[in-house]
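Predict the 3D structure for this chain.
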Amino acid sequence: MKIANSGIKGFLGVDVGSVSTNLVVIDEKEEVLSLIYIRTKGQPINAVQLGIEQLKSDLDNNYPDIKICGVGTTGSARYLSGIMVGADIVKNEITAHAVASSHVIPEVQTVLEIGGQDSKIILLRDGIVIDFAMNTVCAAGTGSFLDHQSSRLGIPIEEFGGYALDSSTSCQIAGRCSVFAESDMIHKQQMGYGKEDIIYGLCQALVRNYLNNLAKGKDILSPIVFQGGVAANAGMKKAFEEALKTEVIIPQHHHVMGAIGAAILAKGKIQDDITNFKGFEISSVDYQTRSFHCKGCENNCEIVKMLVSDKTLACWGGRCGKWDIQNPEEAEALIAQELAK
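Done. Predicted structure below.
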C-alpha cells in the first residue's frame, strides 16, 4: 500500500507476549506519539484487535492527519500479529529490545528485561548484540514471582516498590523456587519481620535468581538499562543497583520497549513509503485459529493456521520452518498435501 506524503508519518510497533500486548506509534524522529498497553489474557487475536481499536481512537484525537507508513511485530505471537496487521518486518524479542535500548541510551552495554512470565539479559558492544540469555521456564525469575507473593500478602503489586523502599532491616528470602519462597516468607513473618522488609527481601531474591540463572559468567558493563513491566517496581531497581554496585537506568517507556524496537525496525525497513499495513479496520475482522500436527517427521510438531471465513491466511510453527508460510495459496496447498498423507 502506497502512503500519501501529506500528514504525519507514523510507524507502528506491535509486541504480543503471554502477559501483555503493547502497541506503539513513533514519528520520523523516533519519538513516541501514542502507546497502548493491555493484558493479553490468553487471547492474542482479541488483544491485538482491541489494541488497534484503542490506538486508532487515540490517534484520531491527537494526530488526526497521521499516516501509518510501516509496521513491525515482535513477541511470542509476532507471526500471528504480523499476519493480522500486515507487518513489513517481523523480529524476535532480543533484537527489538536491543534496538529500543540503543535508541534511548546509545552507549548501552547491558539490558536487563523482566516481564510477567519470562526474563532476558542482552549484552551489547558498540550497538551490536554479542550475547543474550532467556528464561521462559522458571517463574521464580519473572514478574509472576512477585505477583504471586503480593496476592498472598494482600498488597497490590503496584504498591510493592513503595513498601520495598521503606525497608530498614535485611530479610533474606529463599527465592530459588516460588514454593520455597512462600514457605520462607511465612517463616520470616512468624519471626517478626515487617511487610516492608519481607517485600524488599523478595525483590532481592528475584534479583539473585535472575543474576544466577541468566547473568552467570557474563560481563555486565554499564550503562545498564532495566526494562519490562517489573522495572516499574522501585524496589527492583534498588535491589539491582545494590547487587551490581552501579546505576541502573529505567527508560520512560520501559514497559513497551519491545514495541518501540519493532516500530524503529519498521521505520528502517520501509522504502518509498510502501507498507503492507492492512489498516485499522482489522479490529473488526473475524479471525480464527486452528491447529494440527504435522506428520512430516517424528517431531510431530503442532502447526497453527489462521483463517478468515474458513480460508487459511497463513501457517507457522514447527522446528524445521516448513510451515512458516505467509502466503495463503502456498498454505492451502501444503495443508491439502499434508492431509492427504
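The longest strand covers residues 9-16.
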